[in-house]
């Protein structure tokens, strides 16, 4: 069965077409799904646009993305965006869609800052991070992406650093899975923090914030790790279940370079 024909039936709101499309889309090639997505993008029905968004999560950015984004942003601008938000929540958990997102600034201006969609718009990808571990005087260039909040960053930094690079008790496997790609987002007993995180100016990096909130210090986002002053725990490993995170050590700083940075940052 031709998938674009089924998509046309969905747009015409033919009985059973929606369910047929979902079944027929399974296992189709990216080209077939992209063509079908373009057909779906002609519809102004919110449920059809949610279906389109789900499709874009699997195929990435394509020509059908722009009309979807325009409908969502226009809905927010006229005051009924809550009904349309779901259409972008899944596709924006795909890095390719985030990278190719049109009208980002217009969306940011229209979307409430306390919404799930705004949080996805603030996600950084392939972002360089300078991480300094003050107790050992070590430093690392880290590449991050796909992180919903600093709780997730905290857990995955500990996973990458402890105990191979810095001493301490490594996070449990269940915590790492909850913060990355595991199905159980809330491991039994919660997740415990290993560090106190500060920025280059000496201000606390709150776990409730996002990596994009970390200010630039001499042109770099800097995270300084200190021993935690008290034990802190949280329940949820990640807030966007379908978004794949990236926290990789790109380079271990030579001792003199790490010392130089540590001498610059505030305590």
Short description:
With 267 residues, the protein is of the alpha+beta class. Helices cover 40% and strands 14% of the residues.
How would you characterize the overall build of this protein?
This protein has 267 residues and is α+β, with helices and mostly antiparallel strands. It is built from twelve helices and eight strands. Strands 1, 2, 4, 5, 6 and 8 form a six-stranded mixed beta sheet that branches. Strands 3-7 form a two-stranded antiparallel ribbon. The longest helix is centred in the first third of the chain and has 14 residues, at 46-59. The termini are far apart.
Features:
single chain; six-stranded mixed sheet; 8 strands; 14% strand
Task: Please describe the topology of this protein.
Layout: H1 3-11, H2 17-24, H3 30-40, H4 46-59, H5 65-78, H6 86-89, H7 95-99, H8 104-110, H9 116-121, E1 127-133, E2 138-145, H10 150-161, H11 173-179, E3 191-192, E4 196-198, E5 216-217, E6 220-226, E7 233-234, E8 246-252, H12 255-264
Parallel strand pairs: 1-6
Antiparallel strand pairs: 1-2, 2-8, 3-7, 4-6, 5-6
Helix pairs in contact: 1-2, 1-3, 3-4
């Amino acid at each position: 069965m031709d998938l674009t024909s089924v998509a046309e039936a969905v747009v015409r709101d033919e009985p059973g077409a929606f369910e047929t499309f979902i079944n027929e889309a399974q296992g189709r090639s990216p080209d077939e799904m992209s063509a079908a997505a373009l057909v779906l993008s002609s519809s102004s029905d919110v449920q059809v646009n949610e279906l389109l968004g789900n499709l874009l999560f699997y195929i990435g950015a394509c020509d059908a993305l722009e009309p979807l984004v325009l409908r969502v942003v226009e809905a927010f601008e006229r005051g009924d965006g809550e009904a349309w938000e779901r259409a972008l929540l899944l596709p924006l958990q795909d890095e390719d869609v985030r990278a190719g997102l049109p009208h980002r600034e217009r969306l940011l201006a229209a979307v409430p800052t306390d919404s799930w969609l705004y949080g996805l718009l603030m996600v950084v990808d392939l972002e360089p991070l300078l991480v300094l571990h003050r107790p050992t005087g070590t430093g690392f260039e880290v590449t991050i992406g796909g992180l919903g909040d600093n709780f997730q960053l905290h857990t995955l930094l500990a996973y990458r650093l402890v105990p191979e690079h810095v001493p301490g008790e490594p996070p449990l496997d269940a915590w790492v899975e909850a913060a990355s790609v595991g199905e159980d987002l809330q491991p039994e007993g919660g997740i415990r923090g290993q560090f106190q995180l500060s920025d280059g100016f000496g201000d606390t990096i709150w776990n409730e914030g996002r990596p994009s909130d970390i200010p630039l210090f001499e042109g770099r986002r800097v995270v300084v790790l200190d021993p935690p002053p008290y034990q802190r725990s949280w329940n949820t490993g990640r807030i966007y279940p379908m978004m794949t995170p990236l926290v990789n050590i790109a380079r271990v700083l030579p001792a003199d370079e790490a010392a130089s940075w540590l001498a610059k940052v505030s305590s």
